[in-house]
Amino acid sequence: SNIIAIVGRPNVGKSTLFNRLTESRKAIVDDFSGVTRDRHYGKAEWTDKEFTVIDTGGYVANSEDLFEAAIREQVVIAIEEASVIIFMVDVTTGITDLDDDIANLLRKSKKPVFVVVNKVDNTALETESSVFYSFGLGEIYTISSMTGSGTGDLLDEVVKHFEDIQEEENTLPKITIVGRPNVGKSSLINALIGKDRNIVTPIAGTTRDSIHIHYNQYGHEFMFIDTAGLRKKTKVKENIEFYSVMRTIKALEDSDVVMLMLDAEEGLESQDINIFHLAEKNKKGVVILVNKWDLIEKNDKTMKAFEEQIKQKLQPFTDVPILFISVLNKQRIFKAIETALEVQKNRSKKIPTSKLNDVLLPIIEAYPPPATKGKYIKIKYITQINGVAPMFAFFCNLPQYIKEPYKRFIENKLRENFDFSGVPIQIYFRQK
Ligand code: GDP
């Protein structure tokens, strides 16, 4: 999606603006990096346009000596990743040296830059804001991110710079490989694509940061959404947390199925779990690949034990294929592709209403939702709602009385009777 990056030195009010823009959409990405408690990456919308906001400041190291370098990196990355950059300054301090440094970097950017003067809480301050024209970055926008004044006008202008995200014409499944550095993502892509790298087509527009690889071999056809190849080209240090987070999120949003790759020697860590939940929230299919299986000493119980351990950590969404692979030995790497494609089939599966009712209504009759406040809850009719991922509506007399455990019971029954392996399911209870 389109990305707005907010850059600026500390304390100018970046996170206040960030919170203001994203507060209506809090649910999407919480605590994604797994490192910091704060949320610096969120979804927002304005006049029907959805976009992503990044508060780059949240990722700057706190240590004093790292400071300037960190801010510099923050800006470089914003220039590279964002569709639009908001350069925030503070009217109460005027222009500082650090502001000047940032402005110098931004002048070299080809991305649209909006100079946003914050803390303009009255008309006297409005007049003082004019000093910021001296950056030579064009129009300035005065706001008070505390009260929200000015942000509407700012957003009206910002959204004009968004690129049109065209729905891609082709309907091929889109698959991406995500995972921590060095788990073997690039190796897998290389193993599958080999020398055919010339089929790699960079996609223009907002997805310029990922490349789409048209895979069409051995009877399988799909698009690989790859960011790994491009990562190597940049001068920016790879270990910057949010850098890879941004790429991961973008690739994930662009895909139908996410192959989450782990290193068998390290197992499933909190960052992996965060990615997993992000995929789940975004209703993407998921396959877990435990790579470097060749390095593990094993007997006939190892795989099962490993699988159980992983599923334990994935609760409650555990109906996910887990494959043990070795890219090095080319072990089960085609199986991985086949599984991902099956997951996409499950994800786009439509179950006829009659079949759904024939199968589930008898189960519901035998195990009805518990009566609440002396009232019986009666589920009468079930139907699948059209969408990119499976959604089901259960029509009943008192939907508000249906609790989480029953919902989970229903989900399990759906999964037992219809194959939804690797796919998050949405269940809604509604009044007729
Ligand atoms: P990426 O950062 O996730 O793209 O990881 P790379 O593909 O660059 O792989 C990191 C390292 O792991 C490289 O040294 C690979 O050769 C090694 N590697 C990848 N897959 C395997 C595997 O199945 N077994 C073993 N033993 N090493 C692997």
From TrEMBL:
Ligand binding (GTP 2): 179-186, 226-230, 291-294
Top-level taxon of origin: Bacteria
Keywords: GTP-binding, Nucleotide-binding, Repeat, Ribosome biogenesis
Binding residues annotated for GTP 1, in chain numbering: 8-15, 55-59, 118-121
UniProt cross-references to SUPFAM superfamilies, sorted A to Z: P-loop containing nucleoside triphosphate hydrolases
Entry keyword annotation includes NAD: no
Domain EngA-type G residues, every copy: 2-166, 173-348
GO terms assigned for molecular function: GTP binding; ribosome binding
GO BP terms: ribosome biogenesis
PANTHER family: GTPASE DER
Reported function: GTPase that plays an essential role in the late steps of ribosome biogenesis.
Record text on subunit structure and interactions: Associates with the 50S ribosomal subunit.
Family from the record: Belongs to the TRAFAC class TrmE-Era-EngA-EngB-Septin-like GTPase superfamily. EngA (Der) GTPase family.
Protein's name in the database: GTPase Der
Species assigned in the record: Pedobacter chitinilyticus
